[in-house]
Amino acid sequence: MTLSEHHLLEIIIADEQLTPYFQPIVDMEQRIIHGYEALIRGPQHSPLHSPKRLFETAMQAGSLVELDLLCRRLAIQRFVALGLEGKLFLNVMPTTLLDRDFREGLTLAILERAGLSPERVVIELTEHLPIVDYQAMRHAMAHYREMGFLVALDDLGAGHSSLRHWAELRPDMVKLDRHFVSGIDTSQDKREFLRSLLDVARNLGCQLIVEGIETAEEHRCLWELDRSLALLQGYYFARPSAEPPRQVSHLLPSHGLSLQTPRRSASAIIKAVAPVSPELPVLALAERFRAQPTLRCVPVVEAGMPVAVVRRHEFLTLFTNPYSHALHARSCVAKIADRQLLCVPEGTPLEALSQRITDARGLQQEDFVFVDVEGCYLGMGNIVDLLREITSIQVRQARNANPLTGLPGNILIQETLTVRLRQGRSLVAVFADLDNFKAYNDGYGYAEGDRMILALSRLLLSRLSGADDFLGHVGGDDFMLLLSGDDWRATCERILTDFAALVPEFYRPEHRAAGGLLGENRQGQTVFHPLVSLSLAARPVAAGEVVAPPQLSAELSELKAQAKRRSGNTLFIDRRHSGGAAELPSPEAPKAVDSVSSRSSTDC
């Protein structure tokens, strides 16, 4: 460290010349941003712009704790100012937790001033020095958990961080170092290592976060590896930024279930409740509550905008003693209303509203106010109606979903297909089926067979890219895809290539070397069965083409039979309709097809 850098650090700390950056942590299952990790940058065009150099200089200058606390305060203030949703992940040094913050409650005080609940904050233990006193650290972590914080261990496997930290401290979350993710799509060893860590995390009741994802291939590999691996972070989604993205759903694989019907918005639970003005006498409101026993909460609106709420229970407690009437007889509603209210835009998806209420633990959450795009009052909602609506949707989806993959089953597939055909837009229906799967299932057992089907479902999901793309699980090893866009054939070919690379991992070395295994056929004869392969049968439907769902299903069944007659991973396309003809040919018309087939990958 040069003298000039030491002096520059003093100026930076004194003048608070630091800029908080935020990088999203995404939830692949919910398709939302789970939270943001706060990072810090020094002044632009400064030797201390890099956080690595900034903290190295602070360590040498003996200013590490002072810098750490300043970074924490600025990150909290900026997170609130930006109005970011989800949780805030704060990098905190263990030495700070054991020193001033633990004794003085500095973080909690900053949160209270900023209006951010501790339940929305994850303390991410990052190390510049090793942990020496584990007992003191466990005591500190218990202290912060009692206040509502979650605790995460950062960069597992890097620097001083080790499995001992995990075992000794039992954090709520663990973030895996980038080293174990880089190139995981081409390293079976790394995939096996990650599977082992996931088992440890499940046994310890800990959530694993994988950071450092930079490529689509790494992302796809993680998605296929294990469905419980939901929280991811890395440049693939977004780089750290002073103005971070608010959503990244366009980069996440689709659920399948969420695509079969439009996402229900919170407007479904809006109830009309007449508002009151801030100047309304308290006694007039008391009369309204007495006249309407079921009235839970009343919005206070000024110039069309909600400014506060009055909740029935809190209001009635004002009149619990003999002097209450005289005390409040001349008061207006503005004097007793609660200005901490939750305002919800009418188009908010139900899932997003549920997440927002869960995060807003510092508020009275039972009732909330709906507003339009300009912030004007529309009506009221309550948590009971929200839970009832979400439960109704989940029950219907679960009832009609495949129990293994959770994807839409036959009923939802047929409903979705019917709706898409009625809309008259172009689409491509693709039937996916595994070949030689029975031999694998018999030889390796049903559990391994289920594992392969799950891997195929994740692979197919990862390749859905269009907003209207859909995936359903017909049953067994059969799937139905509805693809939109002009690149559907390239999507099918990528699926075949990916599956050809994936399937050998499911076999023991001797079967991989032989290219298959011996097993009984349907006639009870022992024969050689090649490695499992994938057949795709595609039926394009032109815009405006009139075709009934049963007819389309029958045609796909015929195409599937044709595809299964070819060996290897195969794409079989019905060319009778791929040119965009608006009418189906007569049954006597020649059945022209276009077949793409290979032993291990697509060969066009």
Automatic annotation (TrEMBL):
Q: Where is this region: Disordered?
A: 565-604
A Pfam family of the record is EAL
NCBIfam families reported in the protein's UniProt record = GGDEF (TIGR00254)
PROSITE patterns the record matches: EAL (PS50883), GGDEF (PS50887)
Q: Mind telling me which InterPro entries this protein's record contains?
A: CBS_dom (IPR000644), CBS_dom_sf (IPR046342), Cyclic-di-GMP_PDE-like (IPR050706), EAL_dom (IPR001633), EAL_sf (IPR035919), GGDEF_dom (IPR000160), Nucleotide_cyclase (IPR029787), Rev_trsase/Diguanyl_cyclase (IPR043128)
Regions of compositional bias (Polar residues) in chain numbering: 595-604
Q: Which domain of life is it from?
A: Bacteria
Question: Residues in domain EAL?
Answer: 2-254
Gene3D superfamilies from the xrefs? 3.30.70.270, EAL domain
What is the protein name given in its UniProt record? GGDEF domain-containing protein
Record domain GGDEF: where: 425-576
Q: What does UniProt give as the signal peptide span?
A: none
